[in-house]
Specification:
The chain is α+β, with helices and mostly antiparallel strands and 249 residues long. It has 6 helices and 12 strands. The chain has one domain.
Length: 249
């Protein structure tokens, strides 16, 4: 327990030094990304504090509302490196690996998201028959609002999927919890589970700095509980540290 607290306090101190105390402010503008370490990794597994690359701020809602579910998290992927994110995002994440090339966005997606600045769609497998589809869409400026208008909850029913369940899903990481949106849909005999959230690389959440919409998709082949836990485990590989930070005290 003491070791975990020490790690958290160390990261918070680094954050305060990097941001000039900016984490104490409720809203900021044009804040540079916060870096905890310079290390890069071709493979993600269990990581130590020294391997944490950057701090991110995630929430279940976008520009329209800062929710109580907002959290500051850290992990080995530097999500602030937009132009290089497709290259820096490892093709092997824990037991999961990408056997092929990234999928290109179709014309419908390009239209919906106004030709997104970032569009990464990568299929991972564990080699045991399970698959996870990771998608990362990013926009800056006014067109970033399209990321909040086109969500699984709106887009999948428009394409013939019936909403079976949806809501906010907690994910335990150590002694803390983070929160994401959960969507479960059905189309004929097919069932799909998606966890999705929004990510900023500074606490100011300034539109000009951009925002990422990240989704983890899986077909439900067995039970919903097994599929959900598999996606949560994948999330924990991307974000292994939750910081004791809250915007409003």
């Amino acid at each position: 327990m003491f070791r975990d607290q020490a790690r958290y306090l160390t990261v918070v101190l680094l954050l305060l030094l990097a941001g000039g105390g900016s984490l104490l402010l409720p809203r900021l503008s044009g804040t540079p990304p916060m870096s905890v370490a310079e290390a890069e990794s071709e493979e993600i597994g269990a990581i130590s504090l020294e391997e944490v690359s950057s701090v991110s701020f995630i929430d279940v809602s976008g520009w329209y509302q800062i929710t109580p579910y907002e959290r500051a998290v850290a992990g080995p992927v530097d999500f602030s490196a937009w132009e290089e994110l497709a290259q820096k995002l490892p093709h092997k994440i824990g037991p999961w690996y990408a056997p092929g090339e990234d999928t290109l966005p179709d014309q419908e997606m390009i239209k919906w998201f106004k030709n997104p600045d970032i569009a990464i769609m990568r299929l991972f497998t564990d080699g045991e028959g399970d698959w996870i589809y990771l998608s990362i869409l990013g926009n800056r400026g006014s067109k970033s609002f399209s990321l909040f208008e086109h969500t699984p909850l709106t887009c999948y029913p428009a394409n013939g999927w019936r909403t079976i369940d949806q809501g906010v899903e907690p994910i335990e990481i150590g002694d803390s919890e983070v929160y994401v949106q959960r969507f479960i849909g059905r189309k004929g005999e097919r069932r799909l589970l998606i966890l999705y959230w929004y990510l900023w690389t500074n606490p100011g959440r300034d539109p000009k700095d951009g925002v990422l919409a990240i989704r983890i998709h899986s077909a439900i082949e067995g039970s919903v509980a097994e599929t959900l836990e598999r996606e949560k485990d994948f999330f924990r590989l991307l974000f292994s540290v939750v910081l004791p930070w809250h915007r409003f005290g």
